């Protein structure tokens, strides 16, 4: 039975130099030749992966000059015949080309349907499909690198290796069950324990590396707090390398939280410049101060900005008391002036005005939150579904090892369940509903 031929725009909508319209399915080339023509070109002599310049008929006597390329099954993204049209950029023109494809027999693709077909046709594994979403949505270099590692097959390779070990153990157990008189059960159980311990260790390494690198995806949430007019907005602007927050000598200028992000050594850092915390009768400013207190609860680290040219005020002391028990870095600002403030155990001196020691401040933020340096060449997962599966697998392994292998047939059942669980990462054992849900997260045309 032939698959329906689907079509969609594969480039972002809007004005640009080039837009791409893609068709995939058994009829894609046949449909294309109903409205595309190039000199001496037909379905018999077309060469896969060659660009052809020709005319695409939009309606009677109306043509678009464009390029067409044909990818023949199975050497294509979806594993099916694919035809792509590279046309001039523009929302209306791209939509008109899609309409022509639909009129000639194609069907509109659903979100993620191209990638779903690639998965169903064995071109990509489920973990690779999810990594493609990660590549598209990546906002930091580290998150992109993590996704690229998975699309290159590192996760699938690691999981399939562990699954193969389980298959070997299952085969040995079956032999033991079928020929108990020829099997040295104690030796068999000892070998099984060693292999399962090794699998648990490998899974645990991935989990630990991934948990320490959760900031690859979400970034580090940093709250800047301090009394009014202490220089928080100047510190934020210095960290961002641009004037984002308003800087004045008037108290209470920042009346709402200002959020911006930047990247440092591949890690995304989310800054929140909070409204200065103080007693005030200004209703609007009071709302901003209450929001500031809420931000402190979700921050990974708090930068307590202090004016180094002044002694610690009562207002500073009240804020310091409020930060008790939180991960806090004392940022002593205005080092371009004579220092009057006391020393703090966990502090850093900067001058936001003269942009002094700002890079060291960025380093301190990462060191305090992440701790030891993350190995960005290690296999790191940022996908919560995959991490949870590995955690469940680790828990199952711990339970199996704790049972001390009382029965080979029960052990066989447990190992089969573990093999099935790991297969949910690559998709070789996942159910259709979960697969549909994952691919629904893709954009149209992908």
Structural overview:
The protein has 446 residues and is of the alpha/beta class. The protein folds into 3 domains: 6-109, Gyrase A, domain 2, CATH 3.30.1360; 128-213 and 380-439, Up-down Bundle (Four Helix Bundle (Hemerythrin (Met), subunit A)), CATH 1.20.120.430; 217-370, Rossmann fold (3-Layer(aba) Sandwich), CATH 3.40.50.300. The chain is built from 15 helices and 13 strands. The chain has helices at residues 28-32, 91-103, 113-120, 126-137, 141-151, 154-178, 185-212, 215-218, 232-240, 283-298, 314-322, 358-370, 384-402, 408-426, 432-439; strands at residues 6-9, 18-24, 36-37, 51-59, 62-71, 82-88, 107-108, 220-225, 258-264, 267-273, 301-307, 328-333, 347-349. The strands form 2 sheets. The protein has a 7-stranded mixed beta sheet with strand order 3-4-5-6-2-1-7.
CATH superfamily of the largest domain: P-loop containing nucleotide triphosphate hydrolases
Q: Structural class of the secondary elements?
A: alpha/beta
Largest sheet: 7 strands, mixed
Query: How many domain units?
Result: 3
Radius of gyration, whole Å: 30 Å
Q: SSE string, helix = H, strand = E?
A: EEHEEEEHEHHHHHHEHEEHEHEEHHHH
CATH class of the largest domain: Alpha Beta
Number of strands: 13
Helix content: 40-55%
CATH architecture of the largest domain: 3-Layer(aba) Sandwich
CATH fold naming of the largest domain: Rossmann fold
Question: What are the salient characteristics of this protein?
Answer:
446 residues; Gyrase A, domain 2; Four Helix Bundle (Hemerythrin (Met), subunit A); Rossmann fold
């Amino acid at each position: 039975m032939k698959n329906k031929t689907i079509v969609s725009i594969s480039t972002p909508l809007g004005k640009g130099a080039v837009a791409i319209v893609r068709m995939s399915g058994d009829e894609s080339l046949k449909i294309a030749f109903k409205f595309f023509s190039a000199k001496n070109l037909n379905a018999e002599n077309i060469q896969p992966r060659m660009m052809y310049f020709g005319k695409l008929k939009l309606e009677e006597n109306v043509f678009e000059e464009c390029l067409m390329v044909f990818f023949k099954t199975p050497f294509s993204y979806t594993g099916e015949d694919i035809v792509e049209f590279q046309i001039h950029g523009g929302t209306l023109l791209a939509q008109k080309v899609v309409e022509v494809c639909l009129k000639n027999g194609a069907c509109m693709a659903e979100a993620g349907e191209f990638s779903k077909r690639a998965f169903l046709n064995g071109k990509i594994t489920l973990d690779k499909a999810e990594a493609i979403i990660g590549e598209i949505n990546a906002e930091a270099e580290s998150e992109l690198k993590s996704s690229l590692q998975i699309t290159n097959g590192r996760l699938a390779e690691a999981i399939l290796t562990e699954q193969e070990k389980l298959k070997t153990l299952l085969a040995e157990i079956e032999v033991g069950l079928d020929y108990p008189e020829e099997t040295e059960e104690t030796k068999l159980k000892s070998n099984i324990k060693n292999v399962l311990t090794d699998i648990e260790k490998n899974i645990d390494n991935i989990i630990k590396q991934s948990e320490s690198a959760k900031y690859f995806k979400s970034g580090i949430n940093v709250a800047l707090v301090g009394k009014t007019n202490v220089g928080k907005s100047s510190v934020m602007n210095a960290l961002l390398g641009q004037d984002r927050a308003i800087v004045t000598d008037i108290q209470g200028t920042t009346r709402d939280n200002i959020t911006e992000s930047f990247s440092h050594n591949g890690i995304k850092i989310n800054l929140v410049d909070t409204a200065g915390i103080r007693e005030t009768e200004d209703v609007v400013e009071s709302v901003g101060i209450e929001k500031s207190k809420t931000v402190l609860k979700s921050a990974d680290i708090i930068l307590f900005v202090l004016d180094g040219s002044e002694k610690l005020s009562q207002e500073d002391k009240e804020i310091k008391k409020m930060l008790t028990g939180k991960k806090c870095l004392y940022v002593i600002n205005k080092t371009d002036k004579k220092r009057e403030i006391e020393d703090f155990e966990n502090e850093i001196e900067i001058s936001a005005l003269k942009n002094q020691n700002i890079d060291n401040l960025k380093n301190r933020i990462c060191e305090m939150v992440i701790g030891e340096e993350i190995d960005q060449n290690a296999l790191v997962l940022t996908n919560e579904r995959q991490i949870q599966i590995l955690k469940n697998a680790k828990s199952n392994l711990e339970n199996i090892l704790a049972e001390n292998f009382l029965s080979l047939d029960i052990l066989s059942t447990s190992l089969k369940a573990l093999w099935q669980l790991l297969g949910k990462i690559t998709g070789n054992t996942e159910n259709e509903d979960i697969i549909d849900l994952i691919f629904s997260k893709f954009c149209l045309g992908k």
